[in-house]
Amino acid sequence: MDTIVYAIPVFMVMIVIEIVTTIIRKKDYYRLNDAINSLSAGMMSITSGIILKIVEVTIYTGIFSAVALMEFDSSELWVWLFAFVIYDFFYYWTHRMGHEVNILWAAHAVHHQSEEYNLTTALRQTSSRFILGWLFYIPMAIIGIPPLVFFTVGLINLLYQFWVHTRHIPKLGWYEHYFVTPSNHRVHHAKNRKYLDKNYGGVFIIWDRMFGTFQEEDEQYESIRYGTLKPLRSWNPVWANLHLYSDMWKDAKATKSWKEKLTLWFRKTGYRPADVAAPMKMPDIHGYQNYDPALSTSQQLYAGVQFFILLLGTTALMAVYHTTPTWFDALWIIVLGANLVMNGSILEKPEQAIKLECLRFSITASALAVTATLMPVASIFWLGLGSLAVLSLAYLRRYSSATEPTAAIES
């Protein structure tokens, strides 16, 4: 069973605690649509990782086996501590380059697209990290950090970063000088000019202090605005992963220079060929309205229930994928992804709910029919489909007779 399966319930409980705290403190740190979109991106990341993480495992293990200068003894505690520290060092540079290079930003931007900052933002992860994300960790394989140690400390590093995605925890005194905290990570997610491209550390903030990228949160400064300078303005988790790649591809086709076609991918983030577009100017982030299409309470409840059922389905897949055929895993990765995309579409265009839900149920039912022989695994999805059908048809019957209007509202 994948370790992440054990972490998911813990994450969800902590998110519920944060939501309750937000309500008690009368803050506006959560929006249902934004939170669902962040979690949908995270769910697509972990399910696609069932197949795609093989790339990173194969590359690291292959390099370690072929060219490692020595092999550290994984039974020694100091090896684990050493690996933990240097992993974070290389994470710093991976993360920093993810903000400074076009193609790397196209992958990492997914994590920054949320216009809110809460624990769901931590789970908003890219699905395309496998393309080049492994590149910066090659030195660890060469010096001889065993794969088990490497992937374990990497998981610990990732899990640590979950709790720092909150606005409820203030500065933590001396701890701020050495470790990544909610305060200095809020700076990292801010799109205010003063805070742009700062605080890249995963566990240790010392790398930022050493390499000149540290910025303290200034509580007297203007309020932090979250998100990306070029906003996503969509609840589609697939488009969240692809839209910057699409933009670069369009620029590569549009420019007349072959040099630009080949190099724009590796230029500084935001670079566009001169014969395609003028350099981007800093937008007015404070005059900008967050993306928040209005939904009625019943529409929000419906989308929330559908998402919860998809969360259960995702958790079930993560729990059993190592016991099922690759084709089964691939099929349900696609089906769950399609469900998440269409649920996101309902959050944007509820007037299309009936058409989208009919399509969604047809796709899911077809997949269930194909995998029904793999009982009892398929029974989990049959249960999910039954719940979806009962809830959806009851809602859609009411919805089809009286569609409530939608409008954009200011966040």
From TrEMBL:
The species this protein was found in: Endozoicomonas numazuensis
Subcellular location field: Endomembrane system
GO terms assigned for molecular function: glyceryl-ether monooxygenase activity; iron ion binding
Residue ranges constituting the Fatty acid hydroxylase domain according to the UniProt record: 80-213
The keyword Lipid metabolism appears for this protein: yes
Location (main, coarse): membrane
GO cellular component: endomembrane system; membrane
Keywords of the record: Lipid metabolism, Membrane, Oxidoreductase, Transmembrane, Transmembrane helix
Membrane-crossing residue ranges in chain numbering: 6-24, 50-71, 77-94, 134-160, 301-320, 327-347, 367-396
Any one of the GO BP annotations: lipid biosynthetic process
Protein name: Membrane protein
Organism superkingdom: Bacteria
InterPro entries per UniProt: Fatty_acid_hydroxylase, Sterol_desaturase/TMEM195
Keyword tRNA processing: no
Membrane topology of the entry: Multi-pass membrane protein
Pfam families assigned: FA_hydroxylase
